[in-house]
Each structure stands twice: as C-alpha cells, then as structure tokens.
Amino acid sequence: MKRSGPVFFLLLFLGFIIAGCARNYYDNIDRGEGYNYRPGYPELRLAATGYVSENSNTYINVAGDIVYGSLVYSGKDDIFTADVEIEIQIIEDTEQQRAVERTTFSKTLTSQNQRVIDSQDVYSFEREFDIPAGNYIVRVGVIDKSSGQQTLRTTKTSIPDPSENTSHITEVRILTKNNNLPDSEFKPATTYDIQSSQDSIKFVFQVTNNNPDRPIEIESRLLKFRSDTSIARPMNFNNYSPSSLPYQGIDYDEYDVIQSSTRQLNQPGSVIIEFAFTDLERGNYRLEVIGNEGSDNEIFKGRDFGIKSPNYPSLKTPEELARPLYYLMGRNEYKDLMAIKDPDSLKKAIDRFWLSNIQNSNMARSVISLYYERVEEANKQFSNFKEGWKTDPGMMYILFGPPWYTDIFSDEMYWSYSYNREDPEKNFYFNKTKLNSKYYPFDNFLLQRSNFYYNIQSQQIERWRTGLILNYNL
C-alpha cells in the first residue's frame, strides 16, 4: 500500500500533462465559421487571418461574403439594386478591448436579372490592415439600407511577433477556386463548409524561424475523418444506437492520411508555405501543421473544413434537387430516381414526380418553391459534419416548417407546433449526443423516434405530394 502513493501521484501528474497537451492541441485548430442564418436579415460570412510579411510587417486580412438574395432590392428600368453599408472593427483581445482599427464603406449591388432577389450567389469583399502583433477580435457589421436590418459577425485572429526569439506558425488560410469557370481566381473560404464545385483548394500559412541556431522541421498532414453522411431515417424507425456512426457523428480518432510532407527550414526569417489539392471527395478534413525545434519544443496549427455538395448550401444541379426528395418518396421510388445518371433525364423525372401528384401547374410551382426553400434554410441552420437537410432537425424543418416554439437545453431540444405543449402529435423531442465543445464542435441533435409518428409523417408527406401543404401544415 505504501508504494501506491508515489505511483498514484506520478499517474496524476502525467494525466495533467496529457490533458494540458490535448487542450493546447484543440485550442490551435481553426474550424471556420457557420452561417448564423436569420430570415429577413443580411447573410454575412466572415474569415480573418493574421500574417507577417517578408519584411516582418504584421497585418490582418479580413474577407467576407454577402448573399445577394438576403438583401432587399428596388427595381427601376429593369435594373435591381440593393445598398449595403459595411463596417469592419479590429479590437484588442484584452480586458480593455481597445479598438485599433475601424473602417466603413458602402456598396451598391446591381443586377439585370430579377432572380437576384432569391440568388444564393455572394458579393465578396476583402481588406487588409497594418496591425501590431497580438491577439484580436474582428467584428464586421452589414446594414441593408433598404430594410434597415443589420447583421453582426465576430471572429478572432492572432499575429505572431516577428521580433521574438521563438518560432511561430500563423493560422492556416483556405483559398478555393472553381476551375470550370472562366477567369476563376482563388478566393478565401469564409465557412467551415466548402462547395465540391470548388475543385481546387489551396492552404496558405507562414512559418517564422527567429532562432538562427535552431532549424525547424515542418510536418504537414491532410486528414480525412470517419464521419456520418447518411440521410435522416423516418420518424417511426428505431432510435440510433449509441455505437452507430449517425449517433457519434464524426470520429476524430479514425482517419485516413490523404497526404503528408516534411520540410526543413535552416535559415531564420519568415517563409510562406502553400499546399494545393484538387477534387477532394465529400467529407470532413483537417490540415495539420507541426513545427519541431527538438523533442521538447513543438508548435502546432490546424484547419478543419468539410466538403459538401457542389452548390451548398443552395441547390442548382438536378442531383442536388433530387436527393432531398428522399423524405417524400418510398424506398424503391427514390432508388429508381437516383439511378438516373443523365442530368437532363433526372430533371425530367423530378418534374414528373411533382406534376403527376399535383395536377395544377401553378400550385406545383408554389409547392416546389416552398420545399426547396426549406431545404436551403435547413442547410444554413443545421449544417454540421453533413449537409443540414440530412440531419434530424433538417428533416423535421423540411417536412413541418419552423417550429412555433423552441426550447434548447444543454443536451435537449424541444420543438412545438402547437399552443398545447402536451400534444404528442405536435411536440417533438431531440437529444444531443455530445455537448458542443472544442473537442466536438458540432450540434448533433437526434429525434427521439416512435412508432406513434408513422401516421403523422405519412399524413404530412401526403400533404406535400398533393399540394395541401400550402393550406394546412400540421
């Protein structure tokens, strides 16, 4: 018994060291931003990165995207215009939070196409600011001058000090490009999700080696994690097993190494390193960058991202339009639809599905518009390690629309479609499989399924297929 004391304290000490290393590892992983979607407000997506130039000047790059269809337009002489005001603030990430930079600029967006009011394409802006080394909060606001609505997004970034006698790795920046478009150029990625149509992805980061007596070895690895990509199962099926992949969501302990490389930096100074990849498959990835100055001195940066459908979160291709029909079709009907590989034939099959059930073409057009509007909104609100429409909340949102009331707790979520919070046909309960944290940065809410929901789901599907959904929801 006496010998167990030192052993216990040794194990406890090692446990603290391992926990501290794990915290440091996860603290240095950038996971990009979400969509923060709110109906009726400008949609703003944001990314910010700190850099050191070759001349040891320090600055911050701020990149943003504004969704055209989220703005209010005025039309005159077949020209549609929307006016926005953009404000960028850079604030010291300290207790005082002193603002070190503030700039405001206006932009008038114009189009000759009326469809711009629903377009999910984006206006992109990018600004660079000379900022001293340090940790910063970047705050960007967009005001739609027509509606008066404002959206505010905040992110954090840091700039290493080039004068310190230590080595640093800057944040990893992701740039994407669609090679199928003429004159396409690399643009900053502003969300965790990257469209698979962006078939060229470039990672850019800097390494500063400020110690002339100690060379630094840079190891880079692109990892692809084992993750769930399945479509939500019907409401009346059994609940997912805790050991199943849909329950786990993403397993960071199971991955494939897509590519790895090592580079030795022997001279002091700042070096820009780039990696480029083409045609990455859908899934969830991490680029790891590890700098070694010896066995006891390691620096690390990581950048997580997910490859989604070609035009995510919007739907444009026949395949993108076909896949969410899973919720309205029988198993064999859906299987036959997805077996069609020719895009034109698939589009005709989709049209036949809607028009064969809804005889009135105007009504069919309204139902189709509503259905895919909900799919896109589900993508923006519930996207995680897979497309938002595939999640359980996404399925419920598409079929039943936004809930009247939502109650969210640490590991539970309740949706109600009635003033009567006890009505089992109009109140639904979701369980969160893991708490959202830096170790698991996603919300994975799973519907608590029941055989009781069979009739509810069948009736709702019938409303969609007949067009009654326009007059009666639930």
What is this structure's SSE topology?
Elements: H1 4-27, E1 29-30, E2 44-52, E3 58-67, E4 74-76, E5 79-92, E6 99-111, E7 122-130, E8 134-144, E9 150-159, E10 168-169, E11 173-177, E12 187-188, E13 193-195, E14 200-209, E15 216-227, H2 245-248, E16 250-265, E17 269-278, E18 283-292, E19 298-308, H3 318-322, H4 331-338, H5 343-357, H6 361-382, H7 392-400, E20 405-408, E21 412-416, E22 427-432, E23 445-447, H8 453-466
Parallel strand pairs: 1-19, 13-19
Antiparallel strand pairs: 2-3, 3-7, 4-5, 5-6, 5-8, 8-9, 10-14, 11-12, 11-14, 14-17, 15-16, 15-18, 18-19, 20-21, 21-22, 22-23
Helix pairs in contact: 6-7
* Helix amount: 10-25%
Let me know the average pLDDT. Answer: 92
Number of domains: 3
Overall spatial form = globular
What can be said about the biggest beta sheet? 6 strands, mixed
Number of helices: 8
| Alpha carbon gap, first and last residue | 66 Å
User: How much of the residues is beta strand, in percent?
Assistant: 35-45%
Strands, count: 23
InterPro entries: GWxTD_dom
Domain GWxTD: 301-466
Organism: Gracilimonas mengyeensis
Pfam family, one: GWxTD_dom
Account of the protein in words:
It comes from Gracilimonas mengyeensis. The structure is a single chain. This protein has 474 residues and is an alpha+beta fold. The chain has three domains: 39-160, Immunoglobulin-like, CATH 2.60.40.10; 164-308, Immunoglobulins (Immunoglobulin-like), CATH 2.60.40; 318-470, no CATH class. It contains eight helices and 23 strands. It has helices at residues 4-27, 245-248, 318-322, 331-338, 343-357, 361-382, 392-400, 453-466; strands at 29-30, 44-52, 58-67, 74-76, 79-92, 99-111, 122-130, 134-144, 150-159, 168-169, 173-177, 187-188, 193-195, 200-209, 216-227, 250-265, 269-278, 283-292, 298-308, 405-408, 412-416, 427-432, 445-447. Strands 1, 13, 15, 16, 18 and 19 form a six-stranded mixed sheet that branches. Strand 18 and strand 19 form a beta hairpin. The longest helix has 24 residues, at 4-27. The radius of gyration is 25 Å and the shape is globular. 30% of the residues are buried. The model has no long low-confidence stretch (mean pLDDT 92).
